[in-house]
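Appendix B. Raw example, untouched.
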Amino acid sequence: MADITSKAEVKFAGDEYAGFYSCGLTMLGSSTMRRFTQTVENAVCDVDNDGTEISDSPVTGCMTCMSSDDGICLNVTTTESPYSDAYEIRTSIVNDSEKDITMEMVTSFLFSGIKADKIHRILSFWSAEGRVKTDDLVDMNMEHSWNHMAYRVEKFGNVGSMPVRKYFPFIALEDSESHKFFAVQLYSPASWQIELVVREDDTVTVAGGIADRDFGQWTKSLKPGEEFTAPKAVAAVGDSLEDVCDKLVRAQNPDISPADNDMGVTFNEYCTTWGNPTIDNLKKLADKIAGKGIQYLVMDSGWYSNCGYWWEYRGDWSINKERFPNGLKELADYVRSRGMIPGIWFEFEVASPKSGVYEDPDHFVKKDGVPLTIGGARFWDMEDPYVKDYLKKNVIDRLKDDGFGYIKIDYNDTMGMGCDGPESPGENLRRKVLATQDFYRTLRREIPDLVIENCSSGGHRLEPSFMELASQASFSDAHEIPSLPIIAANLHRVVKPSQSQIWSVMRAKDSDSRIFYSMCATFLGRMGLSGDIYDLSDHQWELVDGAIAFYKKAAPIIRDGKTTYIGNDARKYNSPQGCQMVIRQLGDKKLVVFHRFEESCSLEEYIKRNELDLDTGSILDKYGAADEDFSAVAMLVRG
């Protein structure tokens, strides 16, 4: 397939573009690269994870250093991942010339000469995360031109502060002849791009990084002596899409709270109170679920300000004294007395019209000189010292003073293409998002055991640099819809299942099959519960208790295993038909999760039809019953 040694390109403003009908499609191949006449390639060295050469590192890698006659250096370091069979790539540019330079594009990674005939991308919209899109390069009109000169280009990505919107920052290329896969995952929390180029032959060049001037209104100036490092990328090769994705996901190194090492179960009350929590209804919940093996009870939106509709008061984090007359410490203490860790919801990056701070323009992100306003929200300037102090007092001090051990960080819209500031709109936006990530780090420094849940209307921040700052993530807002298990399964390809919190919402009207369907979905990640759980019958509680017990037995496989099979007949998320099976293996044990949709078949027929080597006679434990449409069963199988 490809040599896992990345190259890089940069485009400087003022330099000649490549031509041959490429301008506006790609900035690769520009005259800027002809400046770099001195190259030291494949310099084998021991390098630390930040690319710094050291003498005793267990990680080996290689660095390609390109320099120009006037002292500009473009450096690419490729190192073996210490966590999986993958390779980490870091690209930097150093301006040691005597003049300012302005970049219009710089790649995080660039691989050329890849033999491939198909590409796999992972799509994402709100409550529709994770769908795999497979395209044949011929169908994409990506055959080389007859004279091998004109460019064929496919560019995709995201523009804004929700890095997982429409696409995940991921690409896999498949060579059907050799059955090999080459894949890259980009660690970019704001605007990003990935592009495919075919030109001289039918091999593919794939490159990616920050969304460039054409795609994301990004330029970046460097004064003499300054350096810029592009977002990290991770690449791997494998024998299947599941294999190569597993290597990329394992390469992620999240900062898991010490309190969250045991795959604990979460109960979030949002689908119980729908933004109207009170001390009474949360005490009632705590009493009902105490002793059930649930580790976290999380209070969601609506605890603050003079909340009517919770959405309109974000930004005013004063306690709602009608709902919590004695403050929030009473709640946190009560939850802990019932054997659970209390959690609280914040969307601290925004302010809404009734927050009392909305009309002050001084500390919000601006566009065209006025506060950037989207869907009834304005965005705090996370670089502003005033904002940092405001959030310390209202977020960090609240967590500390009241004794919360879990924070759900929500983020419900995107800033779009960019904002005002000292540099380009795209670079200004990137800096604001990096400041948000710095606040995540501050939270953990101030409260070392804090469990952070990364939520952005569900899945809009399921991107690896954000995931590495959190213990868990809300997998989606698809709480009670048929696609629940489909999304949960698809996310195995880009997110660690041990971080992917899958919601199962219980209702008193639920049939046994409906409970099995929802609860089995949680075995595809971290179990998350919600709903009118105090209205369940004793029989329904037996089913929930059984699911929790099964989940705890399966937890080591969910956390440490490898997903070897994701089979799904369904084409539509809203009205799925057929069946889905996910197999995850650790040692000699397998976790098998089987869901039936409309017009489905039995488990035995599915195994036979798909020629799966699955010995259901070696079942160690079982939960559920897949005996009709929209039902499910999960098994722990030896072998």
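End of appendix B.
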